[in-house]
Specification:
It contains four helices and four strands. It is α+β, with helices and mostly antiparallel strands and 97 residues long. The chain has a two-stranded parallel sheet with strand order 1-2. Helix 1 links the parallel strand 1 and strand 2. Helix 1 crosses helix 3 and helix 2 crosses helix 3. The longest helix has 15 residues. The protein is globular, with a radius of gyration of 14 Å.
């Protein structure tokens, strides 16, 4: 099990490093200091969007609010988006935060 430290590192760069590690090694990882991550200036313009399935059911929430409310969910969903669409998604569920 490899440990990744988020302290004073850019969010996107550390996630791309983790996704490369998961593709190559297929092992479980542990993430520490995920509350001390460094974001860029564009973070206030980013939204997490999802749809309820009903007409007019598009929901938008600010990324930064969702990150500090439930960072584990946001990190795992971001990693799943960076991984290929096959069995690597199951590996992303085994991340320890």
């Amino acid at each position: 099990m490899k440990t990744f430290n988020f302290k004073n590192k850019s969010y996107g760069r550390i996630l791309s490093e983790i996704s490369k590690y998961l593709i190559i090694n297929k092992k479980k990882i542990k993430i520490i200091n995920h509350n001390q991550v460094k974001f860029n200036k564009k973070i206030n313009k980013k939204f997490i969007c999802y749809h309820s399935g009903f007409p007019g059911g598009l929901k938008k929430k600010k990324f930064i609010d969702e990150y500090f409310k439930n960072s584990k969910k946001v990190i795992i969903n971001s990693l799943k988006g960076m991984l290929p669409k096959n069995y690597y998604k199951k590996i992303a569920n085994g991340i320890i935060i």
